[in-house]
Each structure stands twice: as structure tokens, then as C-alpha cells.
Amino acid sequence: MTERLVIIGNGMAPGRMLEYLLEAAPGRYQVTIFNAEPRVNYDRIMLSPVLSGEKGYEEIIIHGDGWYIKHGITLYKGHRIVAIDRAAKTVTSDHGVTEPYDKLVIATGSVPFIIPVPGNDMAGVLSYRDLDDVNAMLLAAQSRAKAIVIGGGLLGLEAAAGLQSRGMDVTVLHVMPTLMERQLDPAAGYLLQKAVEARGIKVMTKANTKAIVGHGKVEGVELDDGTIIPATLVVMAVGIRPNAAIAKDAGIDTNRGIVVDHGMRTSDPDILALGECAEVGGQVYGLVAPLYEMARVAAAHLAGDETAGFVHSDTPTKLKVTGIDLYSLGDFADGDDREEIVLRDAAAGIYKRLVLRDNRVIGTVLYGETGDGAWFNDLKKKQTDISEMRDTLIFGQAYQGGSPLDPMAAVAALADDAEICGCNGVCKGKITDTIAERGLTSLDDVRAHTKASASCGSCTGLVEQLMTLTLGDSYNPAAVQPMCKCTDLGHDDVRRLIKAKGLKTIPEVMQELQWKTSCGCAKCRPALNYYLVCDWPDEYADDYQSRFINERVHANIQKDGTYSVVPRMWGGVTNANELRAIADVVDKFEIPLVKVTGGQRIDMLGIRKEDLPAVWSDLGKAGFVSGHAYAKGLRTVKTCVGSDWCRFGTQDSTGLGIRIEKFMWGSWTPAKLKMAVSGCPRNCAEATCKDVGVICVDSGFEIHFAGAAGLDIKGTEVLGLVKSEDEALEVIVALTQMYREQGRYLERIYKWAKRVGVAEIKRQVLDDAEKRKAYYERFVFSQKFAQVDPWSERVSGKDKHEFRPMASVGFAEAAE
Amino acid sequence: MSGMDWIAIGTLADIPLRGARCVNTPQGRIGVFRTAEEQVFAIEDHCPHKGGPLSQGIVHGASVTCPLHNWVFSLETGKAQGADEGSVRTIPLKVEDGRLFIALDVLASKAA
After folding, report:
1. What is the CA radius of gyration of chain A?
2. Which residues form the Nitrite/Sulfite reductase ferredoxin-like domain (chain A) (predicted)?
3. Under a CB-based contact definition with an 8 Å cutoff, are residues A566 and A594 in contact?
């Protein structure tokens, strides 16, 4: 019979425990989780990148909803457990759900420490612990006002950097004389302070908070010397306390945390505890590596292995602030029995210190250059006698054994049991073996199979080097494919940083993201221009010099340098007046070829550039606007005649096509976007090979997307069925906006969908009504600035220079 | 005839920054380019690959990318960059008080 396992808390430690348990004893337990937070399991270490904007919440989810369903786990989101009845063996949530257990795991984590000063409960005082805190900070940051972070430790500095990159004026108050004094010696703490200040964050050390002042909401912080620093947001990041209250109420032994033995068992044999709430061997932990070690042990016990025991190990500390490299490990206090080796390079901002005892490394502080951290950690762990290499030890691994080596050789030289991923305790051999055994070729695969680089990501570079070592040239680090030769950043990083740093012009992007060329190239400039148009529709001034000629002159360049012109025919419908106007234009400008396109429009080919404005002027008088046949944007909506004429038609497909086209024309997208609406499943408008297609059926509208009929041929994916035209439009618009915001420039919708996953797109634009509405509204907002007919603008004189030669010289008449 | 005959073609302000205009001459079209750093260059407006109008390309640094098949040319030397081989004629150009002049030796001999 399956036993009932109930878990209180859904953080990283119990999440990892379940992964181990499902592997070791599948089907043994019926699992129920109560999570006080209303969401799934996400990577708490990555909250700082979310705050700074380098990542989004979706990217830090560890187990999505599907994972729980797949494993038959019941997850109560937003349920806080208020009582454990050990006699009846049940738990009860604040929503009144009572659940019996055979085994109970308490993983309630920790609570942020709020310093006991007057005003600490005012609106505007936040802690930094979960996604709600981050969201509250992001909201506050919109005001671009002043923020104070109390606490100059790891979390406090990450919060300060995040808020600052969101545009706030930030001051860090730290009670000790130097920053991060628990991990850094004073010299490194000083360098860190300089670097933090150089980013524009103010730092006050020896600053003791006396009170938080304000009327109802925060107005500032008062220090014990009477100084008042104004601020509208105060973030307290002064430490955490194990959250052991529920265990204590239930009569389980607690001290600082819930007391457990080395098998993670509490004083009640049927109850285990792990994570930040647990106290093992007199210690409580806050870094992820020992918490994952607890997860391993707890899972082993639940699976019946009574021998597993928790082993304490030092964990290196790294600061996740872009541009500040810092590494600290072990014991670095001064002492009579200790020696130290120090390297300082003021010009390069490098400081390294090794603390030795009996010729063995016991502590390391690295600042500015941290590449050798893993190697020093390895020396420390193995207690290697370093007397032989003492003279060159501080210069790192590359300097051992004669000549300096390249970084790849340094990784190659690492022992198989050298730890690469500190968060997940993954060593080199495990990674290279798994790559070879399973034939892995991508970073994501390696993350999935080994967990290396899957938490904080700071070892990604090392993992990629290992992949190159193992796979040779066949490894193509697709995850970091740069946009072009002007930058090392990939499209996704650039898009994210544009938003995060609020970059609003191309020169600003190039300056802030350290472009390697003075003004980009023909690859990156159009991409950046699109990203800025998409992200700041109201503020960004389109840079025409960064657009490809077709989008600059709103016609398609042909092989002989002439242009073709396609006026918009809504839904592919025209009339006698329009046809007459086209015929007149063809005669007047002696247009050599008139052709019907695959998207049901009329194309006039062979028009001289100089004639374009006059051609548009004549077409404009007949009511035509640009058909955008040249655009990385909405092209055509192809339709069939639908229920108005066709004996099989089920809905008004022509009307819906026209409605979609009128709503969406003028919008720019990462690549061209072609749509179609078919009135019945016979599909005369060929909607099932379009970027977005609709198949009308009796019961409503089946929405398709991600088809292709070009270089690749691919049938569409079905997004879902909706009942009304209004819903169809909303879903299509939301889908397009999601693609606009996430697509890489020139990436067609089917490639984007392959990358993001059809299920995820479905979840966001179909299942999640709130998300859909938000996408829809952002699209509608951007259309306010996009729906301007470029032809009539140019007929009225815009960009005149584009269409005329600057001069004609040297001809007989000109010379006279 | 001594030295070059300079022919006025317009002013610097006629050309958009990081953009180009063209000038018609009896020997064909010339592209006149203005870079982000305010340098001005004149080259033949005809890509040696398939005849693309270089003046319609995207200007970056002191280079232009042909709109037809993305060949990149140095505006200074007229040489194709990267793996492509070929070049376009460069035309002498000078700027005086914001006014632009080009020199066309063949033109000069015709006019004389």
C-alpha cells in the first residue's frame, strides 16, 4: 500500500528531495505539498537576477505545474499549515484542509529578520525573501525615487544593485565597518565598497538604524547619530531566522531551528525536517549546497536507506551582481597558527588572499579575478600539501608546472572529482561522463541530466568549456550565440538588458552593452531598432538609417534596383474602383508587370524609385494604404469567401480576416507575419501553413499558429478553440504580442514556438486570462503609434531625400 | 589642365547621418555616403557582384552593406570586406564649408 507523505513548504530543498525520492522509490508515496506561497517551486537564488531584470520569473521556475501533475503530486498553493496533530497524524491548513500523513516533512524555510526599531511595520518597509518581495520592490522602483537597503551582506548588496539598475537612487546602510564581513576580510570588503560606489550606490558603514520615520508610509531612516536619510522604500536584508514555529507548537524539539539528527529526523520518528528551518549538528544553513545535501539525505531515509547521513562542508560564497567578481571560502580569520599569501594589483582591481595552516589551504578570498576559486576549493577540500607550489600558488592553477596555460587547458587539467557546480555539488567527471554516455549536445541537456549550472548559473562558463573539451568542435554553444560580430551577447540577453536597463536609443544600447564597433553593422542595427520599437512604442524614435532599404522606402527592392508596390486589400477583397485606380497607375507609370501574390494581393513590379511617391499619391486617392509587403511586420490576412457565399462555410471568414487585418496592420514583428482565415475545415485559405491561421468550425474558431511554407514546410500547431470572433481576435493579438516581445529578430514564429514550447505559449495566451489580457493591452497600446500609413506620410514630403538623386552632373545640358 | 576639376554636388546637410544619396553622371550613378563620424565618401553606386545599388544599403562605421546580397564594402578603399572579393571605384571628394565637391577626370576632359 502506498504511504502518505505530506510536505510543509515548497522551496528548493523539498523540491530537490522529491526529485531524489521519485528516482529512488517511485510510487512508494502519495505526496501532498502545502505551500504558503501561491506558486510552484522556483529558484530562490535567482531572485536577484529577476530584480535586476536579467531574468524573468518564468525562467527561474524549477518545477512547473506539469511536473506535479506528471508525478501525481497534490500541491496546495497559498495554504499555510497552522497545526500539526501528532497524535492523529494530520496537518491542517489556514483554509481548513486537513490531510493525514504517514510521514511528514517540515520545510518551512526561514523568515527574514526585521530589526526592532520604531516604524518597522510602516508601508514601504520590505524584506527580501520571496517573489512577492521582488514584485513589491519592482513596483516601488517605478517611482525612480530613493531607496535604502539596510544590511550590507550578500542579499542586501544584490537588492541594492537590482534596485539601482531599475533606476532608483540607492543607499546601503551597514552596521559593521566593512561590507560582507562574514565572508570577506576588510581589504576585500573595501574593494567591494569601492566597486559598489562606482556603480552609483551610496554606502554608509557603521550606520546604526534608530528608527524608520514617516507618517503612515516611509519617508526616511533615522540613524542613531540623528542623521535622517530620506527614502520612500526601505528594504531590510539583515539576516534570516529559521522558521521553526509550527514544529515548536507541535512539541517537536527546537533550538535555533528544528533539531534533527544526521538523518534529518526530528524528535518525532515520523517527522523529518530539512532546509533553512532545520538545525543539524548545532548548525543552521542558508546556502543552497548544504540544503541540497539535506535533501539527498532526507530522500534516502524516506526511500528506506537508514545509513545516509548529513556531512558538513564549507560552501563558497559568490555575489550575483553583474560586473563584480567575488569569491570567498572557508576560514580566513588571522591567527598565530596561520600564514597567508596575498596578491594585490591595484590597477587591475585584483585582490587575492589565501589562508594556510600546516601548508594546507583553509580559506580563500578572491576579488576581481575569481577563476581559480574552484581550484583553491579543491585544494582545501583534499587538504593538499602545497609546499611544492607555494611560490606560485597565488597566481593560480595556470602557473603550476611551468608555462602558463590557456583557460581550456586549466579546465582540462582539473581532476575528475573537482567540483564544478557548487550549488548542486556536481564534479567534473560526472559532467564529462554524462555528456559522453547520453550523447548530450546542448547546455540545457547537461543542466537537465546533471543539474550542473542549473541553479545560480555562475559555473555556466566552466560547464561550456567542459562540453567543448568533451565534444570538440562539434559543440556549438547555441545558448550564447552572439547577435553578430559587434557583440558577445545573444539576442535574448540584449532584449532583456534593453528592458532592464531602460535603454532607449541605439547608441545607448551600444554604449551600455559594450558594443565592439562604433555603430554596429547591417545585422545588429535593424535588430536593435526593432527591439526598441517593440519595447518603447511611445518613446522610441524609429531610426530609419537602421532599417533595411525595403522598410526605409516602403517598397520591395528588385534585382535591377527598381521597386515593387503592393497596396493593402483588406482580407484580399477589392472592387471596381480600386482595380480601376490600379489600372490607371500601371498605365501612367508604364509599370512592366502586374501580378497577383500568394497572399491574395496585387503586386506592381518594376517601378523606379523616383516614381514611388507619385505612385503612392495616385493609389492613396483611391483609398489605398501600404500593404507592408516588404515589412518584418503584419503582411496579409488571406481569406476564403466563408458563410456569405460558400455552401460549406460555417462562419464569416472574410469578415473576420478583414477585422484582424484592420486591427493589426502596421505592427512590426521580429520577422514577417502572414495570416489566413478559412471558413471551414476544407481550408481554402490554406490557414494551416501560415504563421497564424484560423479554421472556422460550427462550434467556433480553431486557432492555429507556427506553420511555415517557405524554406521549411510545416503544418501549424493548434493553439485552441474559442467560441466567438472577439475571443479569436484577443487570442491572436496576445499570441502576436508574446512573439513580438520574445522573438529574436528574423526568427519566424514557428522557430520561436519551437524554442519556447507550444505548451508554454498555450498556457500564457490561452489558459491564463490575465496574461492574455496584458499582452493584448500592450499590443493595443503600441498600435497607437504604429498605425500610420507610411505611404501618405511620404506623399506629404517625409524622407524626400530618399527618392531623389542629390544631383545630376556632367551631362551636356548640365555642363553648359 | 592642371589638377582636378571639382564639381559641386550639394551640401553635407543633404545627406542623412549614416546614410547616402546618389548623384547621376554620364558614367553611371555615384553613391555619396555620410558616416556617423561625419566622414563623407563617394563610390560607384554599383555592386560588382550583381549590380546592387550600394547607396541604398545600411551604412555602418566606414562601410556599407549592399541591399541585394549583403556584400560589405569599405567606403575608404572601395574593397569588398570579409570573404568576398571585388571592389568599386572610389571617387575623389572634398568638403569645403559644408559644401561637397567630387572630381570626375573623364567629365573634366569632356567638358573641356
Report:
1. 31
2. 558-621
3. no
Residues of chain B positioned with their CB less than 8 A from the CB of A549: 56-57, 67
Q: Which of A1, A22, A134 is nearest to A67 (CA)?
A: A22
Could you read off the pLDDT of A438-452 as tens digits, one per residue? 888 888 888 878 888
Domain count within chain A: 5
List C-alpha distances in Å: A692 to A687, A716, A734, A763, B23. Answer: 7, 8, 12, 17, 44
Provide residues of B within 8 Å CB-CB of chain A: 7-10, 14-19, 21-27, 29, 32, 35-37, 50-53, 56-61, 63, 65, 67-68, 70, 72, 102, 104, 107, 110-111
Domain boundary assignment for chain B: 6-102
The CATH class that applies to domain B6-102 reads: mainly beta
Q: Dihedral, CA atoms, A545, A547, A550, A555, nearest 10 degrees?
A: -80
Q: Does the distance separating the beta carbons of A549 and B25 come in below 8 Å?
A: no
Q: Is A195 in contact with A321 (CB distance < 8 Å)?
A: no
Q: Which amino acid is at A455?
A: S
- A41, A42, A45, A46 alpha-carbon torsion, rounded to 10°: 180
ipTM score: 0.88
The tens digit of pLDDT for each residue in B44-92 reads 999 999 999 999 999 999 999 999 989 999 999 999 998 788 999 999 9
Residue whose C-alpha is closest to residue A274's, from A97, A514, A509, A104: A104
Q: Which residue of A has its CA nearest to B9?
A: A807
- A278-280/A283-284 β-pairing: antiparallel
CA angle (B59 as vertex; B57, B61 as ends), nearest 5: 150
Q: What does the block give as the cell for A426?
A: 556536481
CB contact under 8 A, B26 and A525: no
Distance of residue B10 Cα from the nearest chain A Cα, in angstroms: 7
Contact A717, A753 (CB under 8 A): yes
Interface test with B, best of A505, A543, A545, A553 (most B CBs within 10 A): A545
If asked whether residues A605 and A624 sit together in one domain, one would say yes
CA distance A799 to B105: 32
Give Cα separations from A403 to A397, A428, A464 (angstroms).
11, 23, 24
**CA pair distance A213, A221, nearest whole angstrom:** 6
A261 and A172 within one domain: no
Q: Give A23: exposed, middle or buried? Use CB within 10 Å, 0-12, 13-18, 19+.
A: exposed
- Percentage of chain A lying above the pLDDT 70 cut: 96
Environment class of A620 (CB within 10 Å of its CB; exposed 0-12, middle 13-18, buried 19+): buried
User: A661-681: buried (b, 16+ CB within 10 Å) or exposed (e) per residue?
Assistant: bebbbbbbbbbbbbbbbbbbe
Q: What residue has cell string 528608527?
A: A211
